[in-house]
Amino acid sequence: MKIKQITLYILACAALVGCDSRIDAVNQQMASIRNQPPLPIEPAPIFTPVPQFNYAAHQLKSPFMPSSLAAELKIMAGKRVYPNFSRAPQPLENYALEALNMKGSMRNNRGQILALIQTPDHQIERVQVGNYMGMNQGPYYSY
């Protein structure tokens, strides 16, 4: 039993020696750092102005547009499209396009595909290619 007590005392003393405070060493190191002269600050770099670039290739072909589309846009630039006010208005032209919902599609006996459009009044209207929808006289095209 005495051996256990002696061993316990020795371990306790070793633990207390290991817990010795090192604050004095840290304070001494910090004092030596504070006593050193400060390092000089480098001056900010001087930036030279960049010469202005004038873009002069506005008239050239755009590299991001296919040549076929560019040719088609050039042809269409002179054409103006006007709505046909002489035709009779269709039922779906009374509603804003945002208010109409597509509910499905079906094929009739002749093989034509018809779209089923729901109005805000919960009526289902059949629409085929050439019909007009929305308040801006937009024709319906099927792709």
TrEMBL record:
Database matches in PROSITE patterns: PROKAR_LIPOPROTEIN
Listed InterPro entries: PilP
Source organism, top-level taxon: Bacteria
UniProt name for this protein: Pilus assembly protein PilP
Organism, scientific name: Acinetobacter nosocomialis NIPH 386
